[in-house]
Amino acid sequence: MLVIDRLGKQMNGTDLIKDFSLKVKRKEIVSIVGESGSGKTTFIRLLNQLEKPDEGQIKLDNDHLFTDQRSNKSASTKIGMVFQDFQLFPNLTVKENCMLSPLLNKTLSKKEAELKVNDLLGKLDISDKRDAYPDELSGGQKQRVAIARSLMLEPQILCLDEPTSALDYETADRFGELLKSIIKNNVGIIMITHDLRFAEKFSDRIISLQQFLN
Amino acid sequence: MKLFGLVLALSLPLGLIVAVVKVYGPTVVQWFITLYIYVMRGTPLLLQLMFVFFGLPYIGITLDRFPAAVFAFVLNYAAYFAEIFRGGMVGVPAGQFEAMKVLRIDHFKGYRKVIFPQVLKTTLPSIGNEVLALVKDTSLVYILGLGEVLRAGQIAANRYASLIPFIFVGVLYLIVTGVLSYMLNKIEKRYQR
């Protein structure tokens, strides 16, 4: 379980996030909503150690990801992130994008990585694109590749930044079903969105960031 | 030809190192590099050649003709290459570095596998321009009294009171730059992604 306790982040001298507490279990989809500039994106950037909190704690099971302004890099592998613009590596194929981290970090052998990537791409319904380059993919396909790339590292919590911003209703709904199937593999999902329709339909809980700021 | 190959082989890696230091290095070193690039790009290569070969001996540094030419050319071209590489590096979106970080890809390995190929892709056309310019610039070494094709052409033109040697020299340059352009195109195609 991911436990966020009284998290605080200041930006330019004012509180962007203050006293924010949240628990996210595996197999749960939590949506974070809020207006632009409410600190939604900053929040998941904090979870992924792309920025440092000013106060509070972040714990994952018994590992402290962040306490007293110190972060723990090794525990952070358990949180994955899919960027709003995916940030696939343009010079690598779909398969290479997915396998790069496990192979460079030697967490999987080449054979294991191949098996895993084939399995994931199959589940995400993009097996036929395994040798394609990112610029040959549609927005929805890129998104699924980015998810596969994150899942290769077996995160316990997967963060999604505005996942439906580039999807039409129908595709978004199919994407929602996909998220439901992903969490069955013992993964928790935190997604940031201002698509309330989508959030209400597919998440177990909706949290508004504003209510924590006074 | 020997000068061209040597200068290219030395100035490309040196330019890359200078670019990396200019982007990531300490501020003081960045200033120094900015000054170096300013001087190299802001003064004529011909002056730099003369400075190294005819000027430095006055303060006790004497280089032979060929090493002097290589030295001046490498310093000059590394500055241009550094600016090209720097532009390519700055052009890689910050999100790519963040993606590397989130995927726990080591900075150095990630640079080699992900960032550098993107830098190469965007910079290859400009590098190609400089490579062709270098071919033609090598003719400047005649000022140091080094034998090269343009000098030979001029001597022949004088001896035979003829235009033909100059045309011949021009054709020689076209052949060399033509072959190089073809090779550069091939390399660019390979790094299209």
Automatic annotation (TrEMBL), chain A:
Name the keywords, alphabetized: ATP-binding, Nucleotide-binding, Transport
- What molecular functions are annotated in GO for this chain? ATP binding; ATP hydrolysis activity
UniProt-listed Gene3D superfamilies: P-loop containing nucleotide triphosphate hydrolases
**Which superkingdom, per the lineage?**
Bacteria
**Which residue range or ranges hold the ABC transporter domain?**
2-213
Which Pfam families does the record cross-reference, listed alphabetically?
Answer: ABC_tran
Q: What is this protein called?
A: Peptide ABC transporter ATP-binding protein
Name the source organism. Answer: Alkalibacterium kapii
Its taxonomic placement starts with: Bacteria, Bacillati, Bacillota, Bacilli, Lactobacillales
TrEMBL record, chain B:
Cell location:
Cell membrane
Which GO BP annotation is one of this protein's? amino acid transport
Report the GO terms under cellular component: ATP-binding cassette (ABC) transporter complex
For this protein, the parts annotated as crossing the membrane are 35-59, 66-85, 163-184
Q: Which residues form a coiled coil?
A: none
Q: Where is the ABC transmembrane type-1 domain?
A: 1-184
User: What are the entry keywords?
Assistant: Amino-acid transport, Cell membrane, Membrane, Transmembrane, Transmembrane helix, Transport
One Pfam family per UniProt: BPD_transp_1
GO terms of molecular function: transmembrane transporter activity
Q: Which InterPro entries match?
A: AA_ABC_transptr_permease_3TM, ArtM/GltK/GlnP/TcyL/YhdX-like, MetI-like, MetI-like_sf
Topological type in the membrane: Multi-pass membrane protein
The entry assigns this protein to a family as follows:
Belongs to the binding-protein-dependent transport system permease family.
| Protein name (Swiss-Prot/TrEMBL) | Amino acid ABC transporter permease
